[in-house]
């Protein structure tokens, strides 16, 4: 995975690797009961050095910030708190980006960087090339531009299911399994993306739990075994094999049952292991980390395929998984969250 700058990484399913300084670190606390929601930080990377150049000005007009709000969800604070300290520089792999909530932006950036269970922050030597307090330089310029910027941002087109907070995305087109299974027969339905919360009842191992894929960059095509090598029909050449997950799950909620297929990135989030690391050609048994996902209740985002809509079969493709909050019934009142102001108004 090649490191990207904070201005290059985009919201969506992709996992990114970045090099940045964690300049501010704070606990986001729910006012009232003092419950900790997340461990938050401001990340800065290198481009801030071009701050007053024409290039940087153009970048800012396009809102390609060099600072980004980073969030470690409550569920992972224990894991990451000892690994991230204020002021240090990290190369952090396997982070995901979501659009920032309009009202609560901590920095002039429309994206939020999220830590996942598979995220690996690695502290690196501070070569002092990444500024420590670049937010101070922004204030005067940004304050005068703030209104225009908000208007500009509201015009940006983001796919509907990627809008809002992680919580909003978990709730996007939420259905019960019974409702979703019926949607397959609804010819007036135009939506392709839905979320359901259901429990993993069993793993169907009839076709195994992984496939041999091409290991090149973003190519994940299944390889063909030739006489003494593997061949990728997408890259049209020999390829090195890499095992990727393809796990068939039997799931249910109180209304109905269905099956779904969990592919590599999403499966890795649930098992906390890469498929490649668990290949054991001598063993016929399903690896323990996969067995352990049975019984878990997850929020699945499904993307309906042509296959679903023509065969009417409730055998879904998982496009994302979310981990339900412990107290899934307590909706967080955003108005009560402490807002940390980082801009230096003087
Ligand atoms: Zn390939």
UniProtKB/TrEMBL annotation:
Q: Which residues cross the membrane?
A: 41-58
Q: Which domain of life is it from?
A: Eukaryota
Q: Which InterPro entries is this protein grouped with?
A: Euk_RPA1_DBD_C (IPR047192), NA-bd_OB-fold (IPR012340), Rep_factor-A_C (IPR013955)
Give every Replication factor A C-terminal domain span.
194-318
Q: Keywords, A to Z?
A: DNA-binding, Membrane, Metal-binding, Transmembrane, Transmembrane helix, Zinc, Zinc-finger
- The keyword Membrane is annotated on this UniProt entry: yes
**A GO molecular-function term, please?**
zinc ion binding
Q: Which family does it belong to?
A: Belongs to the replication factor A protein 1 family.
Q: What is this protein called?
A: Replication factor A C-terminal domain-containing protein
Organism listed in the record: Dichanthelium oligosanthes
């Amino acid at each position: 995975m090649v490191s990207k700058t904070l201005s290059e990484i985009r919201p969506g399913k992709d996992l990114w690797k970045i090099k940045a300084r964690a300049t501010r670190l704070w606990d986001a606390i729910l006012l009232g009961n003092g419950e900790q929601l997340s461990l938050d930080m401001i990340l800065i990377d290198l481009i801030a050095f071009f701050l007053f150049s024409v290039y940087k000005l153009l970048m800012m007009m396009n809102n390609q910030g060099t600072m980004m709000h980073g969030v470690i969800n409550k569920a992972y604070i224990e894991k990451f708190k000892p690994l991230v300290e204020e002021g240090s520089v990290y190369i952090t792999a396997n982070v995901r980006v979501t659009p920032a909530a309009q009202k609560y932006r901590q920095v002039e950036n429309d994206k939020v960087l999220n830590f996942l269970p598979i995220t690996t922050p690695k502290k690196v030597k501070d070569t002092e090339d990444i500024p420590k307090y670049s937010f101070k330089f922004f204030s005067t310029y940004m304050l005068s531009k703030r209104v225009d910027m908000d208007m500009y941002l509201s015009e940006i087109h983001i796919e509907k299911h990627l809008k809002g907070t992680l919580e909003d995305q978990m709730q996007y087109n939420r259905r019960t399994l019974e409702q979703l299974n019926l949607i397959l027969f609804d010819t007036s339905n135009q939506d392709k993306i839905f979320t359901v919360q259901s429990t993993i009842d069993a793993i169907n191992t009839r076709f195994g739990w992984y496939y041999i894929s091409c290991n090149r960059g973003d190519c994940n095509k299944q390889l063909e075994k030739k006489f003494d090598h593997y061949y990728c029909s997408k890259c049209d050449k020999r390829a090195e094999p890499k095992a990727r997950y393809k796990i068939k799950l039997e799931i249910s909620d109180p209304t109905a049952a269905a099956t779904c297929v969990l592919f590599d990135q999403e499966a890795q989030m649930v098992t906390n292991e890469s498929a490649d690391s668990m290949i054991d050609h001598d063993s016929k048994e399903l690896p323990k980390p996969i067995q352990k996902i049975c019984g878990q209740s997850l929020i699945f985002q499904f993307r309906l395929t042509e296959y679903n809509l023509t065969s009417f079969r409730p055998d879904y493709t998982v496009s994302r998984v979310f981990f339900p909050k412990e107290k899934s019934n307590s909706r967080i009142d955003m108005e009560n969250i402490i807002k940390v102001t980082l801009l230096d108004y003087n």
